[in-house]
Amino acid sequence: MKPIKFNFNERKAVQVAARLLAHNGGEMNYMALMKLLYLVDREALLRFGRPVTGDQVVAMRHGPVLSRVFDLVSQKKQRLPKSLWHRFIPRPSAYVYTVRFSGVPDASGLSEAELALTDEVFARHRDKTEWELVEFTHELPEWSDPKRTAKPIPFEAILRAGHKSKADIESIAREAAADDFFDTALARA
Helix, strand or coil for residue 60? Predict the structure, then answer.
């Protein structure tokens, strides 16, 4: 069986981030935002069989993060074009650790279940600092310390950590492969 792969949806990533930021008065420490985005995607994968953003997960020193979102927030990959993320969630410089949403939050790409899940994850973790979120994510069974690098966390590992059966994981893999096939076909059309 091929590894499970989902397609990154930047629009949904921006919309979930905007909702989390709105719940927090419009701004948040960037590391706390990245942890909450991971927790939303993790919970969506376990409940619905697919993450909200579709982003790949990597283990880093401070816990699991969404790979493309990390690149967007940290602005480390200068080759990334100005994106939807940068238009609505700019980070003024590498030395500013707070991100703000600029614009009117739009949640039209999110389902009611995804909105409710985002609200639930925020409510569950609203009182945690970024470092408490780091400690919390370090306790998740799918994370292991990658030392001084980033190491992919396969979706299968998250599903196993969430006590999904082999049959459930295989079903999710088939659905993800079908979605990828149709996304690719539509992109070519």
Answer: strand
